[in-house]
Amino acid sequence: MLSNYHTHSHYCDGRGELREYVEYALAHGFSALGFSGHGPLPYDNKFSIKQEQYLDYCNEVRAMKAEYEGRIEILLGLEMDYIPGIQEDFTPLIEKGGLEYSIGSVHLVTHPDHVEALRNSLLHNDNNSQSIMPHLWYIDGGNPAHYDNGLNELFHGDIRYAVRTFFHQTNAMIERNRPTIVGHFDKVVMHNRERFFSYQDKWFQELLHETIALIRETGCICEINTRGIYKGRHTDFYPARDTIRYMNTLGIPVIVGTDAHAPADLDRFEGAYEFLSEIGYRNIVKKLSV
Ligand SMILES: [Zn+2]
Ligand SMILES: [Zn+2]
Q1: Are 116 and 123 in contact (CB under 8 A)?
Q2: Which protein residues have a CB closer than 5 Å to ligand 1 (ion)?
Q3: Which CATH architecture has domain 2-278?
Q4: What is the side-by-side order of every strand in the sheet holding 30-38?
């Protein structure tokens, strides 16, 4: 069976109406589709669903779910950002929207010394991106300059400390929120391109393994995200093939997501299922139970 639970739309930074995703999924033989727009954040930004549109998003997903019932199972979810100082608790959004699942992801890393400054900014309604962004390291997006600038300006070029902070932020998210799915949890490598460290470095492997141990302990599902490959930004899945092999030895449940930002991205699985079957992966989740 085909499914995809990592999808965006015009409500956040994707393209296309919800209906176009559903129709594409149906035409390509999917039996389940989850919507996971970027959850609203309490500061101005270009990528997440706007606070004032959040309930429209939830209601439209529910309307699709009802309309297409019996043809495809549609689930209402969000991809939520865990950002110390800005958003640490997913519960309010989950409850307000009546969500059926969550993807927890880190795209923006808070420097530990800047948590209070962020809290104060929000407290005083100083929530424009110029006030907020200097405290955050943006590890995602198409422009490596954001990665390099944040690393240099916020972390003074200390890549180990910066990457450790990324993983510790991920760990804190898992412990506190236990998202249904942990999204692209090694994406901090995307703009590295083996410039500052190697994936095989012992310190990096230790950080990976620490997060995997936590995923195992909490029972979250680990995402295998294919977007880096079809966007030409990365040559491997998030997490990488070697990491997936290691996770198989621990029996970690995995789910493949394409992180679709357009309807035609829905089936960009990029050989993920072939790879999983080739290595005899034991615990593959194809359908979320709610
Ligand atoms: Zn993401
Ligand atoms: Zn996403």
Answers
A1: no
A2: 105
A3: Alpha-Beta Barrel (3.20)
A4: 2-4, 30-38, 73-81, 101-105, 181-182, 221-225, 254-257
One-letter amino acid identity for 208? L
* Closest-approaching ligand to the CA atom of 106: 1
Where does residue 226 rank: exposed (0-12), middle (13-18), buried (19+ CB within 10 A)?
Answer: buried
Q: Three-state SS for 220?
A: coil
Distance 106 CA to ligand 2 centre (A): 10
Q: How far is CA 46 from the centre of its chain?
A: 16
Closest ligand, as measured to the CA of 187 = 1
**Residue 118 CA to ligand 2 centre (angstroms):** 24
| Helix/strand/coil percent split, the chain, to 5 | 45, 15, 40
How far CA 133 is from CA of 38, 106, 241, 290, in Å, comes to: 17, 15, 32, 36
Q: How far is ligand 2, taken at its centre, from the CA of residue 140, in Å?
A: 10
From the CA of 14, the nearest ligand is 2
Q: Which of the ligands is closest to the CA of residue 170?
A: 1
Rounded to a whole number of angstroms, the CA Rg of the chain reads 18
pTM for this structure? 0.98
Per-residue pLDDT of the chain (290 residues; tens, 9 = 90+): 999 999 999 999 999 999 999 999 999 999 999 999 999 999 999 999 999 999 999 999 999 999 999 999 999 999 999 999 999 999 999 999 999 999 999 999 999 999 999 999 999 999 999 999 999 999 999 999 999 999 999 999 999 999 999 999 999 999 999 999 999 999 999 999 999 999 999 999 999 999 999 999 999 999 999 999 999 999 999 999 999 999 999 999 999 999 999 999 999 999 999 999 999 999 999 999 98
Q: Rounded distance, CA 62 to CA 59, Å?
A: 5
Q: How far is the CA of 105 from the centre of ligand 1 (A)?
A: 6
From the CA of 82, which ligand is nearest?
Answer: 1
